[in-house]
Amino acid sequence: MEMITVPAGPVRLTDRRTQRSWTVDVASFLLAPVPVTQEETGTLPLVDVSWQDALRFCNTLSAREGLTPVYELESSTWDRSANGYRLPTEAEWEHACRAGTTGPRYGPLDEIAWYRENSAESRHDVGGKTPNTWGLHDMLGNVWEWCWDVYDAEVYGEYRVLKGGGWFDEHWSCRASVRRRSHPTFRVDDVGFRLARSL
Fold first, then answer.
1. Secondary structure of the chain in the HEC alphabet?
2. Which residues pair with 161 in a beta bridge?
3. pTM of the entire predicted model
4. How many CB atoms lie within 10 A of CB 121?
5. In DSSP terms, which residues pair with 192 in a beta bridge?
6. Are strands 77-78 and 9-15 parallel, antiparallel or unpaired?
7. Sulfatase-modifying factor enzyme-like domain: which residues (predicted)?
């Protein structure tokens, strides 16, 4: 799969629960234009995949393509010098989703996302909606996407960040800034992931 080069830039993250906001300077990186898909269909997003499953997938694909695997699976650590596939950080994901826009979404929701009101309560083939200006499809809606980051270690321990909203969510969950959390072993039918690589 050809990946898209996301330009460097700052992104402001917010957490409605804690009323916190913070700015992160994101370096340029590579991101897949669509979420990872199921092998048997090639077009439906892969779901029922945990954060830990996603890390294993990234390492396996990296090794298969002759790249250096990024993750130490036993300790859940990231070798930032490795050139293999990985999950985006939360800041990378939101910066890529926004694609230079400042509103809650990068376009009219029905044109860019599958969500509860238009999905017939099921996932859809990736790439069927209008991409953002950087060429990234399904950043909002269809499936939630795992990010690398711990959500809030003091309160939720090792829970990880999910971004983007899914096919079963109301419109207010399909916004660039929305954060959800789940345990790294959690699997459900509206959570998938997207591949990233460092430059």
1. CCCEEECCEEEEEEECCCCEEEEEEECCEEECCCCCECCCCCCCECCCCCHHHHHHHHHHHHHHCCCCCCEECCCCEECCCCCCCECCCHHHHHHHHHCCCCCCCCCCHHHHCCCCCCCCCCCCCCCCCCCCCCCCCCCCCCCEEEEEEECCHHHHCCCEEEECCCCCCCHHHCCCCCEEEECCCCCCCCEECCCEEEC
2. 181
3. 0.96
4. 9
5. 145
6. unpaired
7. 41-197
Question: Is the separation of the CB atoms in 36 and 195 below 8 Å?
Answer: yes
Q: Are 140 and 107 in contact (CB under 8 A)?
A: no
Distance CA 106, CA 104 (A): 7
Structure confidence by residue, pLDDT tens digits, 31-75: 999 999 997 677 999 999 999 999 999 999 999 999 999 999 999
- CA distances in angstroms from 178 to 2, 156, 190, listed in the order given: 27, 17, 15
Report d(CA 64, CA 62) in Å as an integer: 5
Decide: 118 and 110 in contact? Cβ < 8 Å: yes
CB neighbours (10 Å) of residue 120?
9
Tokens in use for 54? 């996603």
Domains of the chain plus CATH, in order, are 4-198 (3.90.1580.10)
Residue in the structure block whose two tokens are 């050139």: 83
pLDDT tens-digit readout, 105-129? 999 999 999 999 999 999 999 999 9
